[in-house]
Amino acid sequence: MNMQSQVQTQPVWTWADQISTYRFWGLLLLYLLSAMSLVALSNFLPVYFQTEVAKRSAILLAESLIGIGGLLGFYIGWVTARYRSKVMLLILGIMQLLGGLLVTIPSLVTINIFGLVGGFLIGLGTGGIALAVPSILAGGRGGTEAFVTAFGLMFLLTRIEQSYLPLSMGININNFGPHPTIMITVITYLVLGILFLLPVKSSLFHEAPPKRGYSLTPTRREPLTVAISCIIPFYWLYWLYRAHGEITWLAPSRNILSPRASVLAGIFVPFFSPVIITSLIEALNKRASELGKPSYRQAWVIFLWSLIFFPVALGLVQTAMNKAMAELNPDGAA
């Protein structure tokens, strides 16, 4: 009974808790870079074998083994997700890196067995990471917002990669040759993925989320000035930082980002801004409800304005903040 009570009372990670920690971004970057390395390899590895038929056959077999290794990698990914093991993620990343080396180093790839082993290791590492990282994020129980952020960012970066990778690699292949270009591209992605993973805490999302509560003293601003100031480059990022800190002071909530995380999300996941801005009005409305006061503005109104013309949404949230300063904490506003 006591154990059951402990499980029930242990804090659950919210989407804002997850995104406000490095462990979310480190896992996501490992996932993305692992996938990008595989895409680069799959698209350009045949360049190695444009003239020699026998080697083309070897690489086709290696690519088949990538698929087989990927299927087996899902089992390793399941074990990794089940035990939320950072060590297993590192092993999977190193497997993919070793496979990439075996397949892209010219002196090794000409030996068929190395190409076959390399292809299998690439599939094993990629498949394991592809299943483990989303499962670990889901294990944090951050909700749909965390998944929208993770896979929305993955979709965005994948589309960007598909746009620039063929051109950039094509230019580099013409200038430096296929061997160094493909090898450097593939290995760089994988090394970066492992390096981004290293600072991630080994506990991942198994422990209770760290306490958040960094706040800023609220400051009254004219809503129209806030909206117009959005024409100033990066002002809206400054406003996001201040608004998250000030609303944490006015209406503490684990469902809004930390000020720093809000800026990072605004820079790297700009399409997610409507959700971020809407979460601010939801926190204010919840606090008002707890005090028996009416909502300041419907959340769906803020969300729609964030999609249509976000300066208006910022002005509306600022209006709500000004009211909250006067109504919820009449002596606390600057």
Could you give a short description of this structure?
The chain has 334 residues and is mainly alpha-helical. The protein contains 15 helices and no strands.
Overall CATH class of the largest domain? Mainly Alpha
Kindly estimate the percentage of residues that lie in beta strands according to DSSP. under 5%
Order of helices and strands: HHHHHHHHHHHHHHH
| Helix share bin | over 70%
Q: In CATH terms, what is the architecture of the largest domain? A: Up-down Bundle
* Tally of separate domains: 2
Number of helices: 15
Q: Fill in the CATH topology of the largest domain.
A: Growth Hormone, Chain: A
Number of strands: 0
Spell out the key features of this protein.
334 residues, 2 domains, disordered N terminus, mainly alpha, Growth Hormone, Chain: A, single chain
Give an overview of the whole structure:
This protein is mostly helical. It has two domains: 2-197, Growth Hormone, Chain: A (Up-down Bundle); 223-327, no CATH class. The chain is 75% helix and 0% strand. It is built from 15 helices and no strands. The chain has helices at residues 2-9, 15-19, 22-44, 53-83, 86-104, 106-109, 112-139, 144-176, 178-197, 223-229, 235-250, 259-268, 273-290, 299-308, 310-327. Helix 5 runs antiparallel to helix 7 (112-139). The longest helix has 33 residues, at 144-176. Residues 1-10 have low confidence and may be disordered.
